[in-house]
Amino acid sequence: MIDPNDVTDPARSDRQLEEFLLFCIVVAGKNADQQARKLEEFLQGHEPFAFIRSLGAKGIIEERLERVKLGKYRLLGESFRRIACAGLDLRSCPWEALTQFPGIGMKTAKFFVLHSRPCEMHGVLDTHVLAWMRERLASAGVRRTDVPRHSPQDRATYFFWETVYFGLVLARAGRAGGEPINWAQVDLDLWKERRAL
Length: 197
What we know:
Blueprint: H1 14-26, H2 32-43, H3 48-58, H4 61-68, H5 73-86, H6 95-98, H7 106-116, H8 127-138, H9 155-173, H10 183-195
Helix pairs in contact: 1-7, 2-4, 3-5, 4-5, 8-10
């Protein structure tokens, strides 16, 4: 089962990578602990993509999703079905390739890559990170309303705020260079910090 408090692992097996990608999809906008448990119940120890293909062949993916109450049944059913049949190399495919699937936007794709590969640098602009950014930027005179409340869907807007995020993290670390920053750890720390509020 995915532990939402410890999601970073660049040494996952193929099975674990498949489960982690599914987790990244089902957790968007939901409680991470609950969704991790529901996904575990959905998979019941099976090889994720092979299991989804077998459910798809029987036409019962959505029924199974409903049974464990994962939510967004039609969207998740289509997403799971297409991903399980795509043949992607989850160790090396670019994050952009993941966004071709239903339920995977830039935030979700970057979250998956950041926490499953070593030395990646991505800003996962979820509600926790954006709230943290609003607080930091407000102290610098930027109006809170200027920072998005939800992850931007427009590519240029996402990249703009991702660059702002990188600058804020570097300023928080008190340096603009030197020792490399573990961006996955920063993301996880911010999530835990905001979650505790």
